[in-house]
Write a structure and sequence with these properties.
Helix content: over 70%
Structural class: mainly alpha
Order of helices and strands: HH
Distance between the termini: 100 Å
Keywords: Membrane, Transmembrane, Transmembrane helix
Oligomer: single chain
Length: about 90
């Protein structure tokens, strides 16, 4: 039994319709993957920038402790003072 061109064309159309949903799902999956990668990159950038400010803050704190220690106070008194204590 031979299939005519019209019958083969109809079979191809139904096969494409069955795969159409998979193509849309894969496209959506790709977009979601790309979006999550962008979010991850932004989060890592924010973390890196927060480390820079933390480094600067610790430098200022250490300078404060050294300055207070140079006046003759103990390390614990210097740390307490630089943390806002009396």
């Amino acid at each position: 039994m031979r299939l005519t061109n019209l019958q083969m064309s109809e079979e191809n159309k139904t096969a494409k319709k069955k795969c159409g949903g998979k193509g849309k799902a894969m496209f959506a999956y790709g977009i979601i993957q790309l979006g999550s990668s962008v979010v991850s990159a932004l989060a890592l950038t924010a973390i890196a920038l927060s480390f820079c400010s933390l480094k600067q803050e610790s430098k200022v704190f250490n300078e404060c402790v050294e300055e207070i220690q140079s006046t003759g106070k103990s390390s614990s008194d210097a740390v307490r003072f630089c943390n806002g204590g009396k």
